[in-house]
Amino acid sequence: MPRLQKNDNFIDKTFTVLADIVLKILPTSKEEKEAFCYYRDGMSAQSEGEYAEALENYYEALTLEEDPYDRSYILYNIGLIYASNGEHVKALEYYHQALKLNTQMPQAFNNIAVIYHYQGLKAANKQKFEASKAMFDKAAIYWKKAITLAPNNYIEAQNWLKTTGRIKNID
After folding, report:
1. What's the average model confidence in pLDDT over 13-17?
2. Which residues span the membrane (predicted)?
3. Which end of the chain has the smaller Cβ count within 10 Å, N or C?
4. Considering only 29-33, 44-48, 105-109, 163-167, which range has the smallest mean pLDDT?
5. What is the dihedral of CA 4, 83, 106, 59, to 10 degrees?
6. CA dihedral 106, 109, 115, 118 (to 10 degrees)
7. Tens of pLDDT along 81-111?
């Protein structure tokens, strides 16, 4: 099962060795250890642009992982892959599933906002201004949630919210 490390990056190799050590000493079930291995292999494949392989690993991890917090990160990473492939509807589904399990994921709120903002821009370019405004309003809702959780992040989103009059101050 373990994925062969194609990347000779010292940090990646170090992470893999440390993760293997932690897995051996932690008092976790066989299923939890397997789920983590699939998750780790999914992250490795994803970082190398091997999205089909990453998805296979993430889906397998989901069948084994029971912890809602850990499942939220698996779902989030699946959303990342779909978003990077332009499958925004699927990406939104997975980001929302991740948020149902873990409401403290500013990165998921941000990514949802980015998709809605992109859809707003596309609608505006097609002169569909009502649809554009609706998408921008949705983006604002999700960016506000992301910023609330991580006030020092998402500076561009904060500036967009201010310049479009969707927020006065962010505190």
Report:
1. 61
2. none
3. C
4. 29-33
5. -50
6. -70
7. 999 999 999 999 999 999 999 999 999 999 9
Q: Which value, to the nearest 10 degrees, does the dihedral of the CA atoms of residues 15, 16, 20, 23 take? A: 60
User: b vs e for 38-63, b when ≥16 Cβ sit within 10 Å of the residue's Cβ?
Assistant: bbbbbbbbbeeebbebbbebbebbbe
56-61: long-range contacts at Cβ-Cβ below 8 A with a sequence spacing of 24 or more?
57/3, 61/35, 61/36
Report DSSP state, residue 126: T
Gap between the Cα atoms of 93 and 130, Å rounded = 24
At 154, which helix (H) or strand (E)? none
Burial string for 105-130 (b: 16+ CB within 10 Å, else e) reads bbbbbbbbbbbbbebbeebeeeeeee
Enter the tokens of residue 28.
Answer: 């976790």
Q: How far is it, in rounded angstroms, from Cα 136 to Cα 116?
A: 6
The three-state DSSP-derived secondary structure of 39-79 is: HHHHHHHHHCCCHHHHHHHHHHHHHHCCCHHHHHHHHHHHH
Residue 1, pLDDT score: 47
